[in-house]
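Request from the bench team (R.T.):
"We need a structural guess for the complex before ordering more pyridoxal-5'-phosphate. Sequence and SMILES attached. Just send the C-alpha cells back."

Command: build protein-pyridoxal-5'-phosphate structure.
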Amino acid sequence: MQYPAEPFRIKSVEVVSMIDRAQRIEKIKEAGYNTFLLNSEDVYIDLLTDSGTTAMSDRQWAAMMIGDEAYAGSKNFHHLKATVEELFGFKHIIPTHQGRGAENILSQIAIKDGQFVLGNMYFTTTRYHQERNGATFLDIIRQEAHDAAIDIPFKGDVDIDKLKAIISEKGAENIAYICLAVTVNLAGGQPVSMANMRAVSQVAREHGIKVFYDATRCVENAFYIKEQEAGYADKTIQEIVLETFSYADGCTMSGKKDCLVNIGGFLCVNDDELFARAKELVVVYEGMPSYGGMAGRDMEAMAIGLRESIQYEYIEHRVKQVRYLGDKLIAAGVPVVLPIGGHAVFLDARRFCPHLPQEHLPAQSLAASIYVETGVRAMERGIVSGGRDAVTGKNHSPKLETVRLTIPRRVYTYAHMDVVADGIIRLYQQREDIKGLKFVYEPKQLRFFTARFDYL
Ligand SMILES: *Cc1c(COP(=O)(O)O)cnc(C)c1O
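Reply to R.T.: structure attached below.
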C-alpha cells in the first residue's frame, strides 16, 4: 500500500503539548469520563471529530477578507450558490448554521406525523429531527454493515430487497422519504456504491417516494467509487459527485466536514414548493435565506473549500491517511471496523474489551482509557450514542459498539498517526484493566454530548 505524502506545505502552525498521565487521570475524572467534556488544551492529538476541525487553505483565509456582510443578498451567497449548483446539480440551496439546521428544516417540511423515514443506518442529530417531527426511523442498510469484522466494499449500501419489503408493508404514502447517507458515519465511514444509489432512486421513483441525501461526506464517498467501483476509475471526483446527486431530490450538508470549513451547512432541494416552505422556516430558525446563520466570509470560504475538496490529490491523501492509521492497528491485531472508512478508524470495543458487557458501556470506557494512556481524544459511538427508543424509553443497543478515531482534514501528519497507533497498541496489550462505566447524569436528548459517568 502506498500512502501519499501531504499535498500541501505548512504556512502556519499551532503548538500542542501533552500534560502528564497523573493530570490526564484527574482531567478525565473531572469530565465525568466523557471525552466531549474535556478541554481542548488538555488534549494532545484531538481525534474527537472531523467536524469543523479542518485546516483551511491560504486561499480560504484570504477569502475571509472579501466577506460581504450585507444582511441580505451577499455576493458570497451568490458565489456559494453557483458553486453548489455546479458541483451538486441541485436547483435550490439554503444556507444553514450547520448540518443539523438543514436537518431541522427538511424534517419539518417533508415529514407528516406518523410517517416513516428509511435510512442506511441512523445518524444522531438526523434521526433526532426526524423523530421530533413525528417520524419513525427504519434502518435499511445491508445487514453486513452491522458486523464490524466483515470486510467488503460499499458496506454502506442499502439492502434493496429490504427497501422494497418495507414499502409494500408500510405503503408508499406512509413513507416520508428515504434518507441516504454518503458515506455512513456510524457504520464506520462506509461508502455507498453508485449502482446502489441508482437502484434506490429507481425503486423510490417507481413508488413516488423522495430521496434526500445526507451529503456530509459525499466527496470521500466519491473517492471510494473512483477507487473501487467498476467503470469509475477514469471519471473525475467532480463527475462522480455530480452523478451521485443526480439520484437525489435534495440533500442536507454539514459544511464542517467535506466543505473544508469550520462552520456552516446547507439544504438543497429541487422541488419549488418544498423550497418555498424551506425559505419560510429558515427565517425562523437560522436567518435570511441568503445567509441562514453563516457570515458572508464563511460562505466564501465554503465555496472555495468545496472546490478544493474535489481535487484528486487532496481527497486521495485524506482517505489514505485514515487508512494508514487503520492498517497500523490491524497489523498489530487491534480489532477495528473493517474496511477502514473515509474519515475515521473505528475501534471495535466489543472485541477490544470482551470482558465488558454492552451495559457496562465498553466504548465509553475505552475512549476514556485512550485519553489517559495516550493524550488522544476519541469519541464513543455505541450504546451511549444510540440513546433510548422515543416510545419505549429502552436503550437502543446497536450491534456496533465502537470508539471513533476521527482524523481532522489537513491537520495532522503521518507522524501523529504513528503516535496514536503506538499508544492504542500499548493499551490493547493491557486491555483487561479497562473497567466498566455507569451513567451518573443522563440528559434526555442526544445524551452522549453531555452525559457524565463513573466507574462501576
Ligand atoms: C456531522 C454530521 C451531521 C450533522 O451536521 P452538523 O454540522 O454537526 O450539525 C449529519 N450527518 C452526518 C453523517 C454527520 O457526520
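Two things stood out. The first helix runs from residue 21 to 30. The pocket of pyridoxal-5'-phosphate is lined by residues 51, 98-100, 123, 125-126, 181, 185, 214, 216, 254, 256-257, 265 (CB under 6 Å).
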